[in-house]
Amino acid sequence: MSTTLTPSDIKELGKVAVLFGGRSAEREISILSGTGVLQALQSKGVDAHAFDPAERSLAELAAEKFDRVFIALHGRYGEDGSLQGALEQLGIPYTGSGVMASSVGMDKITTKIIWLANGVSTPKYAVIDDDTDLDKVVADLGLPLIVKAPLEGSSIGITKVTRADELQAAVELSRRYDARVLAEQFIEGREFSVPVLGTGPSARALPIIEIVAPEGNYDYQNKYFTDDTQYHCPAPLDAAATLAIQREVEKAYRALGCEGWSRVDVLLRESDKQFFLLEVNTSPGMTGHSLVPMAARAEGTSYEDLCVQILRSASLKIGKGKA
Fold first, then answer.
1. Catalytic residues
2. Which of 166, 207, 248, 271 could form a disulfide with 234 if both were Cys (CB 3.0 to 4.6 A apart)?
3. From CA 291, how far away is CA 215, in angstroms rounded?
4. Are 181 and 192 within one domain?
5. Over the stretch 284-300, which tens digit does the pLDDT of each residue have?
6. Listed residue (108, 115, 152, 117) closest to 250, CA to CA
7. HSE (CB half, 13 Å, CA atoms) of 164?
8. Do 18 and 90 belong together in one domain?
């Protein structure tokens, strides 16, 4: 059922900036996300305006008296805490997680450290720098393994390494994006993604989405620009497995201090049905192929109503709850 905003609702939301584009490697996807969000909010009568931080100074947000911000930026300078800190300084409420959770969630290595400290299941890993013995990485993690740029998203800088002599090239690819490289145990099994909405004890997981990509390759192209990837939502899992994954995802979300909304990627190992959490996206995609809107639709929430719901959750986080 569609939600109709009253004149009072619209007035409360005020003048809204939808931030998209930006300077990260995910600029192209951010433009798709932000354009969709902007059109959705405008269709609901919200006084929403496009704002690209790569082309305009953030000081203009304050000068033009925006009341709140919907962050549709992905990757560096938008999802990593730097923008969130600037908005805190400007005093403009924004969607999604605060400075710390955004920064931690952007860094796959730090995310793993915190998850492991909180008993969250995540694949075994190694951090590769200039002094790392690559043969030892292979011995510890086994083959195949996955090599990632820990501060990138949208499958940028990722390689599946099946032979030891491929590892060096995979590391060099990831180093185009980050000085440190994450090597991760490969989990053979089914791939899922679980959106989460809310903050603190009220945060809840949406329906689980199973992703079935061509030849198991859920890469940049198959994520955003083809219709070959299949999505099953709600995922065909029994009730017990569904509940266990959703509770673990909510635990992982709270452990990082996430707020507003996020999406957590999960693998279910075929051999023993154990699941592993890979990473969190604190500013998930909102394109026509994106997963958060898909999960919301499975619950009966339209794309437009989801955008309004997220916008309503915009807030300042620093000093919240203090006198």
1. 26, 154, 224, 263, 265, 279, 281, 285
2. 207
3. 20
4. no
5. 999 878 999 999 999 99
6. 115
7. 10
8. yes
